[in-house]
Amino acid sequence: xxxxxxxxxxxxxxxxxxxxxxxxxxxxxxxxxxxxxxxxxxxxxxxxxxxxxxxxxxxxxxxxxxxxxxxxxxxxxxxxxxxxxxxxxxxxxxxxxxxxxxxxxxxxxxxxxxxxxxxxxxxxxxxxxxxxxxxxxxxxxxxxxxxxxxxxxxxxxxxxxxxxxxxxxxxxxxxxxxxxxxxxxxxxxxxxxxxxxxxxxxxxxxxxxxxxxxxxxxxxxxxxxxxxxxxxxxxxxxxxxxxxxxxxxxxxxxxxxxxxxxxxxxxxxxxxxxxxxxxxx
Length: 281
Hints:
By secondary structure, the protein is an all-alpha fold. It is 74% helix and 0% strand.
């Protein structure tokens, strides 16, 4: 019996190792090609850099200085939109989830199911209507687009927060009320502290989504004035629409490196938060 288990474990390890390699290979290929000249990226895509194809950091310098739109400006817009949108989602959805979990009313239940339903609605179904609505409400700037992200990110966040809050002991909140705490004081000083595991996991998931998002900023923002990093990458084109793949690979690496580092350091919190929000309650 033990021998069968060991064989099964070995087979599963090999299978998951192959799956891991398949997922990691595109990132490795992007990193390798970011140090090769454009001609060799097209002809020897899967080859390692050699004396002829290796260009060092030239692709990174070219990618950051290409065109009339500064790359650091795109970094600023991506960073601002990601941080503000994530903070807005965490604050608003955690408060909404606390209300849903603690108030047993028809309105709360309907609101919860609407948020859950929004998770399964494809973005393509609403993107044209959304673009027109954002223009009419003047949500088409980096300073206001976090409101749009709040609408799209609320479904998953509320689902996870509600599941976690239902597993928290109600007696702690009752004790805070007896001590004279109002609803806001109870939430910010008591509930918010207990929500830390799910707060961290939801925050990381939202950061990865918003930072890498291309379609929503492309549809909503004025691309002549505002470019996030994914949009900036699309416009790394020369004359007659030619694309310098070496510089493009370099900018892609600069865009995904912060998210890879963030995920590697925080993946345990994602697993804990998702498990807590899905099982409790």
